[in-house]
Specification:
By secondary structure, the chain is of the alpha+beta class. The chain is 56% helix and 17% strand. It contains 19 helices and 17 strands. The chain has helices spanning 35-45, 73-81, 114-121, 130-136, 139-150, 152-180, 182-202, 208-219, 222-236, 245-259, 264-296, 300-318, 322-340, 342-388, 447-461, 481-495, 507-510, 537-549, 555-572, and strands at residues 2-10, 13-19, 24-29, 59-67, 90-98, 104-107, 110-112, 125-128, 395-401, 404-411, 414-416, 425-431, 439-440, 469-473, 499-503, 515-519, 532-534. The strands form 4 sheets. It has a 6-stranded antiparallel sheet with strand order 2-1-4-5-6-7. Strands 8-14-15-3-16-17 form a 6-stranded mixed sheet, with helices on both faces. A hairpin with a 5-residue loop joins strand 5 (90-98) and strand 6 (104-107). The longest helix is centred in the middle third of the chain and has 47 residues, at 342-388. It starts with a strand and ends with a helix.
Length: 573
Amino acid sequence: MITDLSITGLGVIESAEVEFGPRFTVVTGETGAGKTMVLTALEMLMGARPPSGLVRGEVARVEGAVLLTDSDSDAAALASEVGAEVDDGELILARVLPAAGRARAIAGGASVPAAKLGEICAGLVTIHGQSDQVQLRQPARQRALLDAFAGGDLARMHVSYRATFGEFTEVMAELADRVENATQRRLEADTLRDGLQIFDQVAPEPGEDVALRAEEESLADTADILTACQSAHAALSDAESGDDAVSRVAAAVRALDAVGETDGQLRSMAVRLRETSELLAETAAELASYTARIADDPARLDWVQHRRAELAKVTRTFGPSLDDALAWAERSERRLAELEGDDERIEELAQRSDHLVATLADQARDMSMLRAAAAQDLAERVTEELRALAMPDAQVRIDIAQTDDDRGLEIGDRRVAFTGDGVDQVSFMLAPHRGADFAPLGQGASGGELSRVMLALEVALAGIDATPTMVFDEVDAGVGGKAAVEVGRRLARLGKHTQVIVVTHLPQVAAFADTHLVVAKGSAGTITASNVRPVSGEARRRELARMLAGQEESDHALAHADELLEMGRREWL
C-alpha cells in the first residue's frame, strides 16, 4: 500500500506532499492543475521511464513510501537483495531527475537500476490506463486474467505443467541436436579417437617432462661425473692403498680409544670421530652405487633424449604444456564416451519425450477443464457488473479454443498445439448491446466500453487475486450520468478489498471516495505544498459543485453534490 508521495520540481508541480488513504482515494482538480503529474510520479516510482521535458529547475525528485505486509514477502525479498532497508514494514522509493546528467533510482536508501523498482513493485501496484486497454485486447492478458480468477487449483496445476514443459523443451533440444548433428558428432568422435590413440602410445605421466629434463642435464656430463665420482670414492675409501679418509679416521678413533678411559675429553673426541667415520663410510657406499649405475647404463642419455622428443610432440599437438595435454586427454575421454553413447542416448531421450508428452496432455486437459468452468463463472460476473455500469444489454462470453497440430498433444480425439501455458487460446467476447454480435474485445469496443469491462473484471477479481494497490487513470473515459455513478460505486467496492487511487474528472466517481485530494493552481500558476490537500466537509462539497457545474457557489450544484456524497456515504456503511 502506498501511504504518501512527495513531488518536487516535476512539470507544473513545484512542491507537493500527498497522503493516500488505505481504501479509495480520488485525485481531482482543474485541467492543467497537475493531476496527471501525480500519476506520472507514481509511475516513476514503479520504474517507468519519465517523459522528457518534465524537470522544473535544476532537479526533479519523486519520493514515496510503500507499506509492506506479510503477504508482500516477494517484494521484501527483492528489496533486501539490492540492499534496501525496510523500516518497520515501510519501504521508501525515490527517483531523482537532474536537468542535466543521469537520473537515479533509490530503494530503501540504496541506489538501484530503475528497472529494479519495477521488479520490486510488480506485485504491489497495478496502474490502469490507456495502455491497459491495449493489453486487455491481447489474448495472453485475457488468459492471465482468467487464470487469476480460476484461483489456486489452476495456479498450482500451471506450475506443475510449466515444470514438465520446461523439461520437455530441454529433452527435445538435446534430441534434435543429437539427431540433426549426427554426422558432425561422428566426425568429432573419430578425431578424438585418433588423437587419444596417439596420446596413449606415448602415455605420458604427470611431471615426467620436468624429471627427464633434470636427468638429461645430469647425464649430458656423464664422463666428467663418472671421473669425479670415482675420484671421490677413492679418496674416501681405497681398499688397496689404505691411505683414504675412512681408514685414516678409523686409525684416529683407535688411537683415542686406547687412552680414552683415563681422559674424558679425549673420549668425547673419539665419539665424534666415530660418527664421522660412519658418515664417511655411508657416503662412500652411495658414491659407489651411483658410479656403478652410470657405468652400467651408458645408453641412458639416448633414451632420455628420445623420450623427451616424444613428450614434446605430444605437447605440440595437444597443449602448450604437458599438464595441458593431460587435461585435454581427460576431457576428450569423457567427450568420446558421450559421443559413442549417442544411439543409446537418443533412444533414452525419445522414450523420455513420449512420457513427458503424455504427462503434458493429462495436465493440459485438466487445466482446460478448470479454465472452462472459470470462464463461464467470470463471464457471468462481468456481464452482471456491466449491467450495473449502464450497459444493461451487454453480454460477455469467454471462448476457449485449441488449434489443431499434428505434432501437438493428444486431447480427446484431436492433436492440438501447446505452449508453456497449455493448449488453450482464451478470447474475451463482447456484445455491447441488444442485437449486437459477439466480437473480440479488440474489435469494435469503444474506449469507454473497454474501461467499464476492465473495471468489471477488477471487481470480479477483487478478493481473489487483489494487488495491494490499484491506480486508475481514465477509467471513466467515455462514461457519464448513471454509468459514472456506478463506476464510482464499483471503485468503492473494490476499495474494500484493496487500496484504490483514481485520477478523475467526474464528480459521480469522486463522491464515492473515502479520501479526496484536490490539486489546485497557485496564484502564479504553480503548485505549492498547500495546493495539494485533502478536502472534506464543506470544502469537499464545493469541489464537487465545481466539478458538476463549474460554480462552487451554485446552490443547485451544492445540492447535487450533497446527493452524491450521501450515495457515497451509504456505500461505506
